[in-house]
Design a protein that fits this description.
The protein is α+β, with helices and mostly antiparallel strands and 292 residues long. The chain has ten helices and ten strands. It comes from Neogobius melanostomus.
């Protein structure tokens, strides 16, 4: 402590009582609005804890100073009550060794797999469906104070939500509209976990396993559909070919010499493919009687 006497400065020693008084006054001014419900016994315990810290200062320094990382937050409880109504961190923070406890909360995105669930769809088909959920804690205090185990509770709720959502869909919607089902699950999970301070970022359907009988039935149906389409295409091809032949016959009828040229071209192609075969072409004039 510095004292001014007759224009001169004197440096004196500060007693332990004065240090304790200054610390307690500073701390009391900060906590006057935070710990209004501690009561007399609570304040006595806090003062005793402060005195213990001051008396055993070098030793309790390692017990009072705590560190949380950038992606972590610390929720401090003083005599069972949450301090400041907000988490501490990142960086250094101080706790009293006897009256304060704290819980670290990880704010990073966490993913977990939904185990395969046997679900009965709307059209009475039994399927096995699994998925994956991505979520993170956005309110550390709610995740600690409102639910005993936020991660485990979210996993159980995801399984129940998967059954409830898929139970309202038929098999065709389940196989074709996975994106819509994922959006519905994410919305339902996010609304349910909001009081827990958890934000569900993404839900994805990984795999849908059908019974073997259903797989064979769907394969047979798909094969029948492909065969029907092949027959339709073949019929359309024959119809187009007949129309082309009709048009070609009309052209040949208008020009009789075209039939002679086509006849010679056919002979040439046959001679090229069947070299061992000897062909004696007949004059086209001898076939006019048969053409008529």
């Amino acid at each position: 402590m510095i004292r001014v006497r007759n224009g001169k400065c004197d440096v004196g020693c500060v007693s332990l009582t004065q240090i304790l008084y200054i610390v307690l006054e500073t701390r009391r001014s900060r906590l006057s609005n935070e710990n209004t419900h501690l009561g007399c016994c609570g304040w006595l315990l806090v003062i005793a804890s402060f005195m213990l810290v001051v008396v055993t200062f070098p030793i309790t320094l390692f017990m009072c100073v705590k560190i949380v990382k950038e992606y972590e937050r610390a929720v401090i409880f003083r005599l069972g009550r949450i301090m400041d109504r907000k988490p501490k961190g990142p960086g250094l923070f101080f706790v009293l060794p006897c009256t304060d406890t704290f819980v670290k909360v990880d704010l990073r995105t966490v993913s977990f797999d939904i185990p395969p669930q046997e679900i009965l769809t709307k059209d009475s088909v039994t399927v096995n469906v699994d998925g994956v959920v991505y979520f993170r804690i956005q309110c550390p205090i709610s995740s600690v104070a409102n639910v005993s185990n936020a991660h485990h509770s979210t996993r159980l709720l995801a399984q129940t939500t998967l059954r409830n959502v898929l139970g309202t869909k038929n098999l065709a919607e389940l196989l074709s509209d996975r994106e819509g089902i994922s959006g519905s699950m994410q919305e339902s999970l996010d609304d349910a976990t909001d009081p827990w301070g958890i934000q569900v970022e993404r839900v994805e359907i990984k795999d849908v396993k059908l019974p073997h009988q259903m797989q064979r039935a769907m394969a047979a149906e798909a094969e029948a559909a492909r065969e029907a389409r092949a027959k339709i295409i073949a019929a359309e091809g024959e119809m187009n070919a007949s129309r082309a032949l009709k048009e070609a016959s009309l052209v040949i009828a208008e020009a009789p010499s075209a039939l002679q040229l086509r006849y010679l071209q056919t002979l040439s192609s046959i001679a090229t493919e069947k070299n061992s075969t000897i062909i004696f072409p007949l004059p086209i004039d001898m076939m006019k009687a048969f053409i008529k």
